[in-house]
Amino acid sequence: MAIVLLGLAACSGSVQYSDWNALQGEWQIVQVGAERVELDKEGGIPPLLGFSKEDNRVYGYLGCNQLTGALVIHPEDVTVADFSSVGRTMMLCEDMALEDAILAALAQVRHYQISEENHLQLFNADGQVMMTLKMR
Q: Cβ(114)–Cβ(120) under 8 Å?
């Protein structure tokens, strides 16, 4: 039975990690909701989220402002994540729409999943993809 279950897991299109070490590092934001993230200018820095296990911290770059805060991982189900304590610096930028969309999406995130293609997906409580990121 265990061999059958392992075989089924290996054939799965995505992997749910049971260890928050999988989030370690920096992830480029490629999609927020249904909208692809495009850089406005050539050579621009893409928005990203980074995760540091040592201090349970999330950090990032939103396109103009920096993001920082604590990431709370549920102790009994490490695929449950809470970004409710993140904030950003308050520089006034020409276009804040992307930053506002990223923060609104993060406020709704409840679960994450990392695919075999090394994409991180953040889901709301209803299972809707709020954001897609790729490892940098």
A: yes
Domains (range + CATH), the chain: 15-135 (2.40.128.270)
pTM confidence score: 0.81
Taking only the tens of pLDDT, the chain with its 136 residues reads 333 222 333 333 444 444 567 888 999 999 999 999 987 666 678 999 999 988 889 999 998 999 999 877 777 777 788 888 899 999 988 888 999 999 999 999 999 999 888 899 999 999 999 999 999 8
Which residues make Cβ contacts (< 8 Å) with residue 84, sequence separation at least 6? 72, 107
Contacts of 64 (CB under 8 A, 6+ apart): 91, 93, 96, 99
Largest CA distance in the chain: 58
